[in-house]
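Write out the 3D structure for:
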Amino acid sequence: QVQLVESGGSLVLPGGSLRLSCAASGRTFRSYAMGWFRQAPGKEREFVAAISVNRGGIAYADSVKGRFTISRDNAKNTVYLQMNGLKPEDTAVYYCAANQVVTEWELSRSPARYNYWGQGTQVTVSS
């Protein structure tokens, strides 16, 4: 079992920055690739970013590429999402998720591949 707790969501002006954190419980963090997803009101949950266990594999949605950066600290069992240049369309509940993998290079963009999810943190971009 893995428990995930997100933090860092807030109200921010367009063009501003936020850093989301996701702390994972347990001693098996290195068994999981990690991802960030988001869900806006009335829309389906969508992929934002993912990172492999060894940090060698990273993927982003086209809509956030160049603005968001995913990272992880395996010693702290924590994954981060640095969000710069925020836009109103980035407004959503952001979820981190853990995907149990066989190799340290794997990652996935598909929510169906993720075994555990956090409760989410609200990000609102508005003037």
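The mean pLDDT is 96.
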